[in-house]
């Protein structure tokens, strides 16, 4: 994983390994409050961490929060995160998290990674999420909000 200002895609297992092995690495869940409550969220308790929860888009109007960067920087500073620490951005399937990771990379955070597949992954043949790819399908720890 490079320390340049580009954002790379990593799969959920690779993200988990770094979160487990690097104490200051962080998982940032940029989904909405509704998604955290009704779909669930990554559980990092066994790593003595918690996912940082900051909405990229507001619900229900889906507009990008103009204060996203400011809000996330405040959370990261409170946790002692440095601009060179690994930041893993996750959303439902990887779109919003990529945009959020790019926004933070533009602010000087040099190790921003998009969690490809997201929390729920792509739609399966029956048009349901959570079984084909992503955090849940990989069997990584999660909890219901």
Q: What is the overall number of helices?
A: 5
What is the CATH class? Alpha Beta
Give the strand order, joined by hyphens, for the main sheet. Answer: 1-6-5-2-4
How many separate domains make up the residues?
1
Mean residue pLDDT: 91
Distance between the termini: 31 Å
At CATH level 2, the architecture is 3-Layer(aba) Sandwich
Compile the SSE list and pairings.
Layout: E1 8-10, H1 12-21, E2 26-29, H2 33-38, E3 41-42, E4 52-53, H3 68-78, E5 87-90, H4 95-106, E6 112-115, H5 134-137, E7 142-143
Characteristic key phrases:
145 residues; alpha/beta; Oxidized Rhodanese, domain 1; five-stranded parallel sheet; two-stranded antiparallel sheet; 5 helices; 7 strands; 30% helix
Task: Describe the overall structure.
It is built from five helices and seven strands. It has 145 residues and is of the alpha/beta class. It has a single domain, classed as 3-Layer(aba) Sandwich (Oxidized Rhodanese, domain 1), CATH 3.40.250.10. The strands form two sheets. The protein has a five-stranded parallel beta sheet with strand order 1-6-5-2-4. A two-stranded antiparallel sheet has the order 3-7. The longest helix has 12 residues, at 95-106.
